Amino acid sequence: MRNLIIASTSTLHQGDYLDYLLPELKNHFASTETIVFIPYARPGGISHDAYTEKARQAFNTIGKKIIGLHEFTNPIEGIQKAEGIFTGGGNTFLLVSELYRTKVIDALEEKLKTGTPYLGTSAGSNICGLTMGTTNDMPIVYPPSFRTLGMVPFNINPHYLDPDTNSTHMGETRETRINEFHQFNPQPVIGLREGSWLNVKGDKIILKGNLKARWFTTNRPAIEVDPETEINTLLT
Amino acid sequence: MRNLIIASTSTLHQGDYLDYLLPELKNHFASTETIVFIPYARPGGISHDAYTEKARQAFNTIGKKIIGLHEFTNPIEGIQKAEGIFTGGGNTFLLVSELYRTKVIDALEEKLKTGTPYLGTSAGSNICGLTMGTTNDMPIVYPPSFRTLGMVPFNINPHYLDPDTNSTHMGETRETRINEFHQFNPQPVIGLREGSWLNVKGDKIILKGNLKARWFTTNRPAIEVDPETEINTLLT
Lengths: 236, 236
Description:
Two copies of one chain form a homodimer. Chain A is an alpha/beta fold.
């Protein structure tokens, strides 16, 4: 039993923090009064307090109370007793390092397997895959492992970006990077465009939002996947 | 004594591989007949042979012979006996993993300290910094450390990209990422735009090419640095 929303981004262009997802979140966290927020990814290096406040304000509009995981003396216990959990975006290397350092990673994996409602955005979505090997982030700290929660049997690439055909910049495209990943790793990768999310309920994994997603495997060219597709059907 | 060219990119938009650098390289490798090429970064996952062939063709036009490091039975010896060394771009995580796996990393550091002429492009430049923590690449493999050669007393960000003010994409800008890096790491970072390179001769580090570079430190806002600046003057 799993019950997750795995979102590409927290914020759409010209939108406010989480606003496009709030109707969905109201439903997702319907039976949850309090949500534990994991602020470890610290976007732009902001403090745990400041980041938690941002999440608090957004969830306040749908009547949910937010507690920052850093506010618990024992963060493992904070996870174990949580009614709902939200991991915000930022830097995935930092997030994963902190999840290992605090030993929250195993508690989180166990907890999510019991069906506790979870929301991840960006880095918080990345960690739902088998590894963090398809993050877009800069390796600002060295985590003890790239292994992540494995809540879905593939890897996530959030903020998926199509090649800019007008660009004169010679850095690799996202698709090139993911193809490089597949030279060394067997698992499929889903590129989630901004505004897309995966709805994981039990064994079902459904693509949500208005946009298509891009699905990469080792042995075939990448394909476009329509909204409402059950991603498990691609795994055979 | 160090003698390095640390280039942002191998290839300019609408240019051929290394062509913009060839006049400089002819001079840099003037006393060198044979150059050992380190193909470990494997851009796009191409083979060591295919990548070495690409370097061979470019250096052939200035009369230099290329040998791939993978062609040596003992790659450490290959480095120790090299007259000149070139590390090509690709994936920095893969490059650093292979440098550690083959134990070439220490031999390379020792060798470059003796003044052997070196060229790095992109990932091959990244490794000249203190750590690989400011690479733009995807973490497709897990290296045993992010520590790199430390040929300059700061970190390199190749392919430095200015914020795209027209973009609707919500991923972080390069500047945001480097500022995040500075929340956890003390060393300065130089953002080298495509077409720029550092010329390291002994203790002197000069910015070359037509473009300015961007210099990031922990305690002041980033500044623009003119070509021909001696980078050591920024370190005080």
